[in-house]
Amino acid sequence: xxxxxLALAAVTFSTAAYAADFATVDADQDxxxxxxxxxxxxxxxxxxxxxxxxxxxxxxxxxxxMTAAIESNLLPAG
Length: 78
Ligand SMILES: [Ca+2]
Ligand SMILES: [Ca+2]
Description:
Blueprint: H1 2-15, H2 22-25, H3 35-41, H4 47-53, H5 63-71
The chain binds calcium ion (CA) (2 copies).
Residues 54, 56, 58, 60-62, 65 line the site of one calcium ion.
């Protein structure tokens, strides 16, 4: 049982190893992260998470929105 928990913890850590750096996620460097850019950088993140992180609901994440989402554990930190 303990082994299973440790294995799950290892998986969690490895999948969390994304580059959550804004400039990296913003692939076209236009200063905003689209849903496509976010899911390309973080394949486990679904559209609902993107919409939740997009607090001003303008369809893209600003650096502040992405940082806030990471700080509230909505998005995985790098
Ligand atoms: Ca972009
Ligand atoms: Ca936004």
